[in-house]
Automatic annotation (TrEMBL):
It comes from Desulfomonile tiedjei (strain ATCC 49306 / DSM 6799 / DCB-1). Keywords: Acyltransferase, Transferase. One of its GO terms (molecular function) is acyltransferase activity. This is Phosphotransacetylase. InterPro entries: Phos_Acetyltrans/Butyryltrans, PTA_PTB. Coiled coil: none annotated. Pfam families: PTA_PTB. The keyword Aminoacyl-tRNA synthetase does not apply. Residues 572-881 form the Phosphate acetyl/butaryl transferase domain.
Amino acid sequence: MEANNDVVQIINGMKDALTNSGLYSRSVFDPNAPKEEDQIPKLQSAIQSAAPIHEELKKMAEFIRTAVIDPVHKIDSNGRTAQDFDPLNDFLKKLVAASENFGKEVELVPLYGDLLSLYILALYRSGGPGKKSPIINMIINNIVRRKAIETDHGKLRAGMDGLKNKICVAIIAKRYAVYVLATRGFEVLFRSEIEFRLFGTSPEALALQITNLFLKQGIKLADITDIVCGGGDIGTLPDGTYVLSEKVRDESWKRLHNSSLNRGALVAWELRQLLRHQGRGEGINASLCSPLSFSTLDFHAVSSLFKEDSRELRQSLKGYVKVTPLKSLAALLSEIQDINPENFNLLVMTLDELFASVARKIGPRIVRELAAQEANKTLISFDFGKIVDWLRQENFVIPPNFRLTAREIGTGVKEICEILMIIESGKVSAALERSLNHVVDSYARQVAMVLEMAAAGDPSERPNFIVISSMMALDPYFQKLFQKIRERIDSPFTPIMCLDSLEHDYLVANHLFEMYLNPAKGDRRLHYSVEEKSMKQALQVLGASGGGLETFSFSRLLDEVSGDISDGKLSQVNIVLVGADNEDALLAVSNAKDYGLLNRIALIGDPEEIMNAIQRSKASLLPNQDPRVEIIPINPLIVGFEQKQKAMAEVFHDFLEKSRDYVVMKGSVDTPGLLKEALSIYKNEEPVDGVKPKKKMASHTALFVLPDGRFFALSDAAVNPGFRNVDQLLNTVGNQLNVVRPVVSKDQMLKVAIITAVEKETAAIPSTLLAAEAEQRSKELEELYGPMVLEGPLSFDLATDPEVALEKNYHGQIMGDANCLVATDINTANVLYKLLSKTMGSLGLLVDSGGIITAGPGTVPIILTSRGDTSQTKFNSILLALAYSSTLKSEKTQEKQTGKLKVVAGSSR
């Protein structure tokens, strides 16, 4: 009671303080108090007196927009020359300096952002052909200021004077084109866009087009001294292996499905090869993606890059985004604002082509924002092909140069701008106009939400500016899109700007500084010889892989399965993840859900550990909000690894008894614990005519796709220790073919090799005798699975390397070209599995893989991967399981196979 009296006294004291100050009327807190009608509280009075001031500020802002902003936009849109922007630059520079206090008034903050945007874009436009680029000059000055301690200022002036003889080519490859900036010192020679649609995607052809541009400008090829390359959101890795982060369907993509090459780097390589024949010799300096920072990537993250294809870049490399626009704009704004870069906070969102990347500078730190993935999802979810269909139904003629006609899901911001252009044309119905506006508004709303999320944080860390950057910043329809985005951002005291990303300009400035102004302590990656060997090898892989028939790829399988689900030909599946505190497995399940492959998701394990793993992995699973995602808990009081494993197995057992319609997936649970329960789904069938059928035999099948597009199926690395008789071995072969045949061409010859230590039968190695007997009975399988051949015993090298087959004078039907491998014991299969999935990846060879357990036609697959496998491998395994479940034969064919397989089926171990 005494404590309550203390609280009442404190509250009364606060009331007295507020009412005695005159800020609030006593009647606010006491409804029975007499109303003091003659007394207006000070706070209310101040607000009322300030209202006219706010209205006046709004009028001032509107006046400046009418008097300055609108006329400048008219100047910008009338095809002016670079010289026209010189007086405008001077005017805007003075206006920006005189308006620096606008950032303190909420009504003037947007106006200040617009003035800064106009000034920077005018600076950009003034650096046209034949003119010095003020942008490059300012960025170099900023770099010199930031690196003042390590720079030799005595040599700086001489270095600056020497730049006038350096002709530099900056190359950035985007999704639809290669963008080029050529400079002589600070002077701009030309800017150009080389579209893939017109010139193809071959690096050699693109490099040749760049040389043609120089010749058209009257510039001697022998005078070119420097090449600098950007492009691709990941850029260069320390050992020169490149990853293309754009899904460009062209010849290199077709040959290297699981990952590809940074096209900008390949073009730079080919351009250098062409220029070397012009008498320059080795005198051409080159910088490959040098402005991209990898300082925050740990060993595991770098290693994982070798295993990822473009889907994985969109799925799990959420934070590793391009920082070049951030660095360029931070340098420029800190120069204009005269702010120490160490005290400058900036948030930049880049909207170009498919990827929307977000990066943030907080003082000296650069943060790669995970929010970028949310913007990507918005683009990926738009099916522009349907929009094209709507337009054609109304007989709207889409201009042939519009990118909408590409009809690809998840294209880019260019298509959004084209939709805005169509809306303003007035040539579509009101209903379609509303639908198109909904698409644009949804995109603008999502981008605004991402920016608000990324800008959050402590007041001291909030951005001084938010910038939406794009190579389309000068496009009037992109400006309209920017206005829609800004209207939806609730950040009243932060100027929001629309700017070119200035990537080329930063690449040139950084290259010139590191190569000529500060060479003693420059970036070692600037020496092209470090990259030359790996670039050459990459080109050899690209050329040697050829254009033959693609056998199999997980990328194509995803397209087919997700397309069938969208068309209603296929149903989503339910999945239960046992040991759901595994981050890679959670991310794989999350990605499968995002692609629309899954219906219900059950997560078995400790609830707290599962939620922590979801948070760490950034998986888009919301068990507390999404009714389709459910946590099946074990007792949270259980401690110790062994005890938790046992508890998960028990909970999983009970779950299976009630829910047989779920595909089983392994998470952090150990394999024996999972299989002991999971294999119970392959129960014996009911007796037929009093004859009890033999027990179904389960086995593991993994698929691997190598960098050159070759694929292998491998069994059995997980279930059966060995095979006691040929029936068991043939059953495992049958299980493997049941997985492989539905996902490859029906005309594809499947070549099954039974792998042993040697290729000759010998009683000293009993498995060779088993393999030979399996070969003799292979006709039983050939009748069921189409074109195929089975041979054994074969050594691994003979089965997979044509040169070895020739050297050993082997004359079988398999001459080093096997695509289905079956080992005779688990030791051999498991070693091969980890060799292909782990060792090759650690050597920089990009291998795609996935694996499931099956037990014959019509059985539900079990997704079994190693706990050390990547999220991509686990995702591929989900995809393979769903494809296997959905591509079962017709009932008649299944009955035929079941009858045949009874002949070869043996009992499981």
